[in-house]
């Protein structure tokens, strides 16, 4: 590895520049650029051994607020079981992209306390591409080591069909790489990333859209051909859901993320699309800056996920806001009376966390919960 590669930022910049230079058009799709920025095996944002979530990172998740989301998921698991109660087989929870392992730790703690018989039968499988995050999860889940194992995506798919299984993800599809497209003079164009040699940095360019899969997505989604509007096309999310559904024999898929259905995502007030970057808790729409040093996300199209699940055999789907999911599964019952003179008591802090999860200007409405179920084949 040369001296440039030793620096994370320069290493990724060099990798991007070299890949661009190797193409006939001297440009790569935005999807490929985003994939390199987030998932390059050495320099990608999610692969780097650095804090990403919480105060010292770049963004927060619902699990950062406390254990309430995990406790509510545990309540749902016990109340609406995804397994065959008459089966002697074990119960599996497969968390996809679990990051630091905080949600898994909170969920396993809750199940161990509230449902010990279920916990004793549980096989918790983590599908995590980042070696750094696997290390974090192993440390965070040390108390649950007998319940935990790691699998690659390929190994999990290959070992199917999986019965008595819940596939769980929290803020996963929003971080899959997306194509970016736009309407110019009444025609569809795709955004590419080239290299500005004079300024020595990535630059944006466009070409007429020719990708057949993206064109098929446009037709299926009935994207409005609104002059100047930009859109994200997350084919990777649909592919992932279809593959997960096909590998599931009987069980459920629980997807928590921010986004909406197509009608909202493609509305006139979203002329610039939904792609955002997060760095040190500041949001921007500048994906060509700080490659590999910032999170990059786009709103999830839950309608597309539902259709992809149906193609993989998921026969039931229910989409709700995170607020609806939390309230339906007993979050308000977790409010505790406390001495109002002590705002820093554990009870007061917990009540504040509940309010934060339910406030409409926080995560409660923007975040959605998609529940899809699959019955055993007859």
Beginning-to-end CA distance, first to last residue: 55 Å
DSSP strand content: 15-25%
Average pLDDT taken over every residue: 87
Number of helices: 14
Residue share in helices?
25-40%
Coarse structural class = alpha/beta
Describe the main β-sheet briefly.
8 strands, mixed
Give the overall shape, derived from the CA principal axes. globular
Based on DSSP secondary structure assignment, what is the total number of beta strands?
16
Radius of gyration: 22 Å
Taken in chain order, the helices and strands follow as HHEHHEHHEHEHEEEEHEHEHEEEEHEHHE
Poorly predicted tracts of residues: 1-7
Layout of strands and helices, then pairs:
Elements: H1 3-6, H2 8-21, E1 27-29, H3 30-39, H4 68-79, E2 91-96, H5 102-114, H6 116-120, E3 122-127, H7 131-140, E4 148-151, H8 153-158, E5 165-170, E6 179-184, E7 187-196, E8 201-208, H9 212-221, E9 230-233, H10 235-247, E10 251-260, H11 262-265, E11 276-279, E12 282-284, E13 295-297, E14 300-301, H12 302-311, E15 316-321, H13 322-328, H14 346-358, E16 367-374
Parallel strand pairs: 2-3, 2-5, 3-4, 5-10, 10-14
Antiparallel strand pairs: 1-7, 6-7, 6-9, 7-8, 10-16, 11-12, 11-13, 15-16
Helix pairs in contact: 4-5, 10-12
